[in-house]
Amino acid sequence: MPESLTFPPDFLWGAATSAYQIEGAVREDGRTPSIWDTFSHTPGKVAFDENGDTAVDHYHRYRDDVAMMAGLNLRAYRFSVSWSRVQPTGRGPAVQRGLDFYRRLVDELLEHGIEPALTLYHWDLPQELEDAGGWPERETAYRFAEYAALLGEALGDRVERWMTVNEPWCAAFLGYSSGVHAPGRTDPAASLRAAHHLNLAHGLATSALRGVLPARAAIALSLNSQVIRALTDDPADADAQRRVDNLANGVFHGPVLQGAYPASLFTDTAGLTDWSFVKDGDLAACHQPVEALGLNYYTPVLVSAKSSTPAGPIATNHGVSEHSPWPGADDVTFHQPPGECTEMGWAIDPSGLYDLITRYSRMRPDLQLYVTENGAAYDDKLETDGQVNDPERIAYLHGHLRAVHRAIADGADVRGYYLWSLMDNFEWAHGYSKRFGAVYVDYPTQTRTPKASALWYAERARTGELPAEPVWEGSTVR
Ligand code: PNW
């Protein structure tokens, strides 16, 4: 019989969103198109050809949204800044009206006692920079550092939690190799250059922020470090696991957290590139001191060597494309992990979150760890009584929060958890068909309704207690 668990008193109970997924107002106050505007307006790229033009209209409704967060007892809110709102061409001086929106949002959060956690890049590169070559071009990393400094100067007096790049794996490999995300390119060699320049962008931005932020500011990187499991203990499967782990994790945490790329990554990808785009001094530039590491986790990845592959369901976790998001791993098979799935088809496995946290806790015991995203999509319905009952999401959150608690009990320095997502929103290539929110959004009216899971989570935030069982019988937050 499980018992109820208590989290540390200063544990940060939060929720997360990103700019393109919620803001809308894509043509207001000087904002120019990002690669996601272009991509979503290209027929056939997003389910039902949906786009973020309106999204959940957060740009106009941020005040109500912040009041709603306060009503849900949230202590922290992780959001991202739309680069092309602040720097429409990706270079040059900042646009005041763009900065003002984020200043108003941050002030509203602070007035409600909610800590803002700002992500500089959640995939919405200004289109003009993509036209100049995008992340495969080194110049983009320099542009990013300049943008980081502008934001740091503008908001450093009121934002203490800074995150550079969110999930560089998605940006590099879904964007430039499999092409299921913007800008939709399918060039594996270019995707490896993109990965390096995202690492460099993180490092250069971190240095630039140090120059403008007060000493109390904490800088972090958010990785979608993935948990890669081998199908069997056959050495060929273990090798497949190592190769995919390099491409999912090592290619980012190597330079950024350890100061070097894994040597075997170079040999695994030798047929695609000679890595000559890594210049002298780059590894030192990537390997900047940071205070915190953000980990995003949804589901594990299960692999085997093609030669040893038995028949079985093949995973579609990373979207469906004839091009792989794993450059140089064509001889690996990706399997559907066992167990129940969320609406994304992602297998539910909280032990993966425990494994991820303990891995990074051992790698860098000096860093504060945050779960910067975790959550689930379900086919939620607004009932006639005005409630949204989502017991599956409560069970998902319960299981994963138990895993976080176990990791803390075993010595990991996990300081907080940001539920993905605060509210239903534009789920990238899936459009609005997948609901990740704790709060339900009725898109035609933009009405927000906290789901049962939001009320359940609000109780965790209020009490710091995780009950023994994932049940919720209340209907309001006390
Ligand atoms: C993350 N994959 O995206 C993002 O950070 C969020 O913006 C997004 O809404 C959330 O997770 C849910 O999808 C991912 O294919 C998209 O492995 C795709 C993958 C992983 C994360």
Automatic annotation (TrEMBL):
Keyword Hydrolase: yes
SUPFAM superfamilies per UniProt: (Trans)glycosidases
Example GO molecular function: beta-glucosidase activity
Pfam families linked: Glyco_hydro_1 (PF00232)
Catalyzed reaction equations: Hydrolysis of terminal, non-reducing beta-D-glucosyl residues with release of beta-D-glucose
Sequence positions that bind substrate: Q21, H122, N166, Y298, W420, E427, W428
Top-level taxonomy: Bacteria, Bacillati, Actinomycetota, Actinomycetes, Kitasatosporales
Domain of life: Bacteria
UniProt feature coiled coil, ranges: none
Example GO biological process: cellulose catabolic process
Any one GO cellular component localisation term in the record: cytosol
Keywords annotated in UniProt: Carbohydrate metabolism, Cellulose degradation, Glycosidase, Hydrolase, Polysaccharide degradation
Name the record gives this protein: Beta-glucosidase
Source organism of this protein record: Streptomyces sulfonofaciens
InterPro entries recorded: GH, GH_1_N_CS, Glyco_hydro_1, Glyco_hydro_1_AS, Glyco_hydro_1_beta-glucosidase
PANTHER family: GLYCOSYL HYDROLASE, LP05116P
Catalytic residues identified in the record: E167 (proton donor), E373 (nucleophile)
EC number from the UniProt entry: 3.2.1.21
Similarity comment: family membership: Belongs to the glycosyl hydrolase 1 family.
